[in-house]
Design brief:
Layout: E1 6-8, E2 19-23, H1 29-38, H2 41-48, H3 54-64, E3 69-75, E4 78-87, E5 94-101, H4 110-124, E6 129-135, H5 139-147, E7 151-155, E8 158-164, H6 184-196
Parallel strand pairs: 1-2, 5-6
Antiparallel strand pairs: 2-3, 3-4, 4-5, 6-8, 7-8
Helix pairs in contact: 1-3
């Protein structure tokens, strides 16, 4: 099941809506940092490849929003997930993806929705090769990669994924559409489960 989420380029006007995605701006650094700090220790290790402290995360949030494209997932006004696109060459044809999603939101297909929108943004930016790396134990990331046809290579305790993209023209003004018609059920499950796991996000 994949989740259906609206996607907006930069406006924060809809941040209080039930669930949507938008591009983050440098002014969102504090909210981005707060989101990363809400990840539990195991999730931070999977996201960053090791243990990191608050100072590292705050500096990372500031730096990334000044150099990369970051899509934020907002649920009821809170930033609960992020998908990052980091350009790797001067031509902008190779980019690296990274994802983070808070525990109460997992299992509703949002990882697939995140990847679909990030892939769309990458293709419209002219990216031809999308890569990501993660710990070999990060089953969620590996599953998303496999579902999207990524080539996977394992080296030591790390996994390296590579996916060929076809650059596509921008279709203004709508930057992205629903990921799938059946996905509304995924968002409904997300809304119902969010309250259950709210204590874990404090």
């Amino acid at each position: 099941m994949s989740a259906e989420l609206s996607f907006h380029s930069a406006s924060s006007d809809l941040d209080a809506s039930p669930a949507h995605q938008r591009r983050l701006a440098p002014k969102d650094a504090a909210r981005f940092g707060d989101h990363l700090l809400r990840l539990d220790a195991a999730s931070r290790r999977l996201r960053f490849g090791g243990a990191v402290n608050e100072d590292f995360i705050r500096a990372y949030a500031e730096r990334v929003l000044g150099s990369a494209t970051v899509i934020g997932l907002f649920v009821a006004g809170e930033l609960r997930g992020a998908a990052e696109l980091h350009t790797l060459d001067d031509a902008g044809e190779r980019a690296e993806a990274a994802f983070s999603l808070e525990a109460p939101l997992r299992g509703a297909g949002l990882g697939g929705a995140f990847f679909a929108n990030l892939r769309r943004v990458a293709e419209r930016a002219g990216v031809r090769r999308l890569v990501f790396q993660c710990l070999a134990e990060n089953r969620a990331m590996l599953a998303v990669g496999r579902r999207n046809g990524a080539e996977l290579r394992f080296e030591g305790g790390e996994a390296h994924a590579s996916l060929a993209l076809t650059p596509a023209p921008v279709r203004a003004p709508r930057e992205a559409r629903a990921t799938s018609a059946a996905a509304r059920r995924g968002v409904d499950r997300l809304r119902g489960g969010l309250q259950v796991g709210e204590a874990a996000l404090g």
